[in-house]
Design a protein that fits this description.
Layout (H helix, E strand, L loop, with lengths): L12 H21 L7 E10 L5 E9 L4 E9 L2 H18 L1
Antiparallel strand pairs: 1-2, 2-3
Length: 98
């Protein structure tokens, strides 16, 4: 991807935002489509992270047999308490099906 400098003349904020959305979407698609079976997993950790007053992310991390941590998946919700059970179930289903 080309380096984007939002303060450069002729670069609109909407163009920068669109490019970031495209890059983010591609990253998430690659993250969720990779196979997990070829790695020996020693631990699975699920944790809620408050991103803002209104938004929480539940993140699934795996620890491989070398002790390295890997982000396996994540889900966004409106609050950690209200969404955590649903998000955890969704993450577990998506990880099992990978």
């Amino acid at each position: 991807m080309q380096e984007i400098k939002p303060t450069s003349p002729g670069v609109k904020r909407s163009n920068v935002s669109r490019l970031w959305q495209e890059a983010g979407s591609k990253f998430v698609q690659e993250l969720r489509s990779r196979g997990l079976a070829s790695t020996t997993w020693c631990a699975l950790m699920l944790d809620g992270i408050r991103l803002s007053k209104e938004q929480t992310a539940v993140v699934a991390l795996g620890v491989d047999d070398q002790g390295r941590k890997h982000v396996l998946d994540f889900a966004l919700g409106s609050s950690e308490k209200g969404m955590s059970h649903l998000l955890l179930k969704l993450l577990m289903v998506s990880l099992v099906m990978t």
